[in-house]
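Working notes for the structural subgroup meeting. M.R. asked for a predicted model of this chain before we commit to crystallization trials. I am recording the input and output together here so anyone reviewing the notebook later can reproduce the run.

Input as submitted:
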Amino acid sequence: MTYANVMARLEAAGAEQTRKTYRRHGMPEPMFGVSFAILGTLAKQLKRDHALALALWASGNLDARFLATMVAEPARCTPDLLDAWVRSAGGHTLASYAAGLARHGPLDVAVAQAEAWIADPAETVQRAGWSLVAELALADAAPPDGWLDGLLPRIEAAIHAAANRAKEGMNSALIAIGTRDDRLEGLAIAAARRIGKVEVDHGDTACKTPLAEPYILKSRAHRREQAAKAAAKLAAKATAKPAAKAAAKPAGQP
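Returned structure, recorded in token form:
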């Protein structure tokens, strides 16, 4: 599908109600107002197309840029490209989507990029960096030993004085770190108790800032439940194989 075709489909799929919602969440113009459900369906049809992703981002259109983050080839998303995308996003949500592409690349590069972004003075860039931290904390690949532990005191020391959206990103990162495993759960909950309630201005929206401790506990419980289900499924498969083999043998055969 050509760039012109994709832009035409995005324009046709736009809706005023979606535009209103996006504006309330601080997303920048120009935009058509395409729902994420439609963007996701279109991304599946397009698959990975890096040249198209670059053209979509260059359009400056919000919906096209979100789609660009969905069809870009992660292996070709260099640190310089992602940094340019994060800095030109114009809004915290789009910047975080762009930053999330880093998690698909080499882990050491993603960690270095997250560190650079969370140290940046720009609010949107900081928020994108903390969003990447959250994604890396929940990824299957293990970040460097001690990295996530070391972020907890940094969050604790800076969160209340941080810029609004950076504060939101820190809270999300705190929750994600605590969700990773039993050891980090305890460390993150202890930090969350010392931090207390985090106040974030979400503007004219129904969004609320979650309290870290109960959210961590809920997420850990869900992870344990999913792990138990997966283990039970594997055990059932292992039991079923010998039974199926025995049933397939002719009568009387050992």
